[in-house]
Specification:
The structure holds 2 protein chains of 2 kinds. Chain A contains 5 helices and 13 strands. By secondary structure, chain A is mostly beta strands. Chain A has a 13-stranded antiparallel beta sheet. The chains are: A mainly beta, B alpha+beta.
């Protein structure tokens, strides 16, 4: 199996979309008494990582003025390094495709007819006019490797026992220098996450829901993201269908496929 | 104290005294000349700068009146395309029908990601009515190379510096990705038909100009734009015109719109208001320096003439007359300097008003709306103000030497 970096950088809805929500058939539910922050993160990573997956999902963006945008997409993912996504609805957005390979990202719009590689410092820019940066979509840090973690407390969140972990980045180039994550201490999935800038300012809050049992382990099928700075948006991601460990044709992750499509 | 004593011909005496040491007088005169010339020119220059600012700002940013969707200003930094002005085909003729309106131009302003020659940069896309913009945004004057994009064609004019950073030139293709009116992602593939240079650093490094219809297609703004700029022949009364237009539109149009006079878009005016006192301070310093030179040279004169003043006092000349005599001498010098200075300052101002001062190099990298040339705006009042200020300064500067001259009793002065 190819090296898979732990995923669940669910901080970025778009990241989640692009990665296509990944699962790995690992998953023994641990109930150790003495547990280190690192153990917790490794279990979460293991739980949330997948070899391959095919996903259909709905993304809903709700604006402060009451406007709501619904979009459907289909995505392929392999490990955490490769993903392909195509919007299928509404008609206006249908055929818009995204490809991610490692840190590289391409966008294809049918109207343009040619793919664009998003690169360099542009990855740090917001996708024009939206809440998400390209970096959100392509940056995929390993929580175990890229962050120092401490257990802040153990609390109940929405009726579930959780560990509250506080993460501090070891590198300067990560979008979120601090993260606070509420982790279900029986199912080893995140239930809530707060993402902070270096200054300590709260940037985004993610809430995980619709937790379902898939095989032997649990997985959140819905994520709600609140952008705390640009307070007029709330984005919900609802997985409609998910197939794990499917065979993904390798040409899916190529630019020529991006420009010709499914 | 009879009245006959008052008939001392002080002015003539002062004039004659001023001629005693020609070289020293010329030095004093030249100090005033330089100060008055600088003052005359500086006023013209500052007015020219401010005029350039306001004119450029109006043509590129605000118009004399700007109409946008209600609430747009508050959310301006996000450039929300879903907040737009709809029904242009009805709205524009109606607005142009107002006799106070010289021109009404729709523009779409939107942030884009520009991809060209394999690299990306952030850019600002302006969708404009290329023909109507002549005299306003002035696409043909911005043209550095190539030809202006044509309406109805997928073409774009790229800021010279942006083009250089992207590595594209005329004939190449750029891809633009941005927002749509439905808040989704839109894009366009446009041929670069022209490079532009506006002399405004931020403009040249970020802006792309494309036909309005192309940007409307890309952003799904059918028959809509993000703003309409209005220009009037009487910019100073834009406020009342804005109110009238707002009333008209409220009656005729169902949309909630912001109709704002450029005078209410206070950002730039605040900057200017902050700058003005600084100029005033600098000019004040200049006058102070000229005044100090006068104090200095006249003190020398007075020292040399101490015995003379003692004699005059002993002969019955009153202290007040001596003060008036010395101040009159200062004023005489001031008048000569003021005439020479205002003439010199006016000459330079008028000359540069015709030729312009190219400051393109100096404004590179500055993020202000400013076009390459400054044309000083000379006015007769500036020369007069400067001349009066010069004469007053000279007169005031003579007060101290005058006081020194009458400090001693006639006997002390004669013994000195």
């Amino acid at each position: 199996m190819r090296r898979t970096r732990p995923h669940h950088d669910t901080s970025a809805v778009l990241g989640a979309i692009l990665i296509g929500l990944l699962l790995t058939p690992v998953g023994t539910v641990a109930t150790a008494q003495e547990i280190s922050p690192r153990d917790i993160l490794e279990r979460v990573d293991a739980n949330m990582t997948v070899r391959t997956a095919r996903t259909k999902a709905q993304m809903t963006i709700t604006y402060r003025d009451g406007d709501v945008r619904n979009m459907l997409y289909e995505a392929w993912a392999e490990g955490t390094d490769r993903s392909f996504l195509e919007f299928t609805a509404p008609a206006r957005d249908a055929g818009s495709r995204f490809l991610r390979r490692g840190d590289a990202m391409w966008i294809f719009l049918p109207r343009v007819g040619k793919s664009v590689r998003i690169q360099g410092h542009m990855l740090r820019q917001g996708i024009m006019g939206s809440d998400f940066s390209y970096g959100d979509a392509s940056e995929n840090p390993s929580m175990v490797e890229d962050y120092d973690a401490t257990i802040e407390s153990e609390v109940d969140l929405a009726g579930r026992p959780t560990y509250v972990l506080y993460l501090t980045a070891k590198r300067d180039d990560l979008s979120y220098q601090h993260r606070r994550i509420w982790i279900d201490s029986e199912r080893w999935i995140p239930l809530k996450e707060e993402l902070f800038a270096k200054s300590g300012k709260l940037l985004k809050t993610a809430t995980f829901g619709d937790v379902r049992q898939v095989g032997r382990r649990w997985y959140p099928f819905a994520i709600e993201m609140n952008n705390e700075l640009q307070t007029d948006t709330r984005t919900t991601l609802q997985i409609l269908e998910m197939d794990f460990n499917v065979n993904v044709p390798q040409e899916v992750f190529t630019v020529s496929y991006l420009e010709s499509g499914f | 104290m009879s009245r006959t004593r008052r008939r001392i011909p002080l002015a003539r005496l002062a004039w004659r005294n001023a001629q005693r040491n020609t070289r020293r007088t010329l030095l004093t005169v030249s100090a005033i000349t330089v100060a008055v010339a600088a003052l005359t020119f500086a006023q013209s220059y500052v007015t020219g700068i401010l005029g350039n600012f306001l004119d450029t700002y109006a043509r590129t940013e605000t118009g004399h009146i700007r109409i946008r969707a209600d609430g747009y200003t508050e959310r301006e930094r996000f450039m929300p395309l879903h907040m737009n002005v709809k029904g242009l085909s009805d709205l524009l003729p109606a607005i142009r029908g107002n006799p106070g309106v010289v021109e009404a131009i729709p523009r779409i302003r939107t942030a884009v990601l520009v991809d060209g020659a394999g690299s990306n940069r952030p850019g600002m896309l302006l969708g404009i009515d290329l023909e109507r913009e002549e005299g306003y945004l002035n696409p043909s004057e911005m043209l550095l190379e190539g030809r202006i994009p044509r309406a109805g064609h997928p073409e774009v004019m790229v800021g010279s510096e942006l083009a250089e950073k992207l590595g594209v030139s005329v004939g190449d293709t750029v891809i633009l990705l941005g927002q749509t009116a439905y808040r989704s992602m839109g894009g366009a593939r446009l041929e670069v038909t022209a490079l532009s240079e506006m002399g405004m650093a931020y403009f040249d490094a970020t802006f792309l100009v494309a036909p309005l219809d192309q940007v409307q297609q890309m952003t799904y703004l059918d028959d809509a734009s993000t703003e309409i700029l209005l220009f009037t022949s009487r910019p100073e009364s834009a406020d009342s015109l804005a109110r009238a237009i707002a009333t008209d539109l409220a009656l005729a149009n169902g949309q909630e719109l912001e109709v704002v006079s450029w005078k209410d878009q206070a950002q730039m005016f605040r900057v200017l208001d902050a700058v003005k006192p600084i100029f005033g301070f600098i000019l004040g310093l200049l006058l102070l320096m000229a005044g100090l030179i006068i104090v200095n040279t006249m003190l020398m004169t007075i020292m040399e003439r101490t015995q003379e003043f003692g004699m005059q006092a002993a002969l019955g000349m009153r202290r007040r007359d001596i003060v008036v005599l010395i101040v009159a001498e200062g004023i005489a010098i001031g008048v000569i300097g003021a005439i020479a200075g205002s003439a010199l300052g006016s000459a330079v101002g008028i000359w540069l008003e015709a030729t312009g001062i190219d400051i393109t190099a100096a404004t590179r990298g500055i993020n202000i709306p400013f076009q390459g040339n400054i044309y000083p705006d000379w006015q007769l009042s500036y020369a007069l103000i400067a001349a009066v200020a010069g004469v007053i300064t000279a007169g005031l500067a003579a007060l101290y030497p005058a006081w020194r001259a009458i400090r001693n009793t006639p006997a002390e002065a004669l013994r000195a």
